[in-house]
Amino acid sequence: MPVLVKLKKTREAKGLSQNELARKTGYSLQNIQKIEQGRAASITFDALGRFCEVLECQPGDILEWRPDNIDDKTRSSSNDQVLKTASEEVERKSESSKSTKRQTRMIIIGGNRGAA
Known about the structure:
The chain is mostly helical and 116 residues long. Helix content is 59%, strand content 5%. It starts with a strand and ends in a 15-residue tail after the last helix.
């Protein structure tokens, strides 16, 4: 699989144990272990977002794309776009959840209509 999950490396760099990461993200220790050992078939954007929030990192710190062969290298720009899109989606969801907590309404009264 060309996408590697570097959760263990990122977690250790932040000085957290698997138990601490599990407790702070709400995922089970077994799930964390499965992801770190490369036995998980996939990882959701929600999980990626929680890991990034707790580890104070970007999705690119947890995910890495490595081509299986030379043909894959020619597709690297499209795969980079997929990872960038995933990263932006996680960031958008994170910002969206933060903004709903402290949402402010603004009403503009008497703007500059007809001003040249």
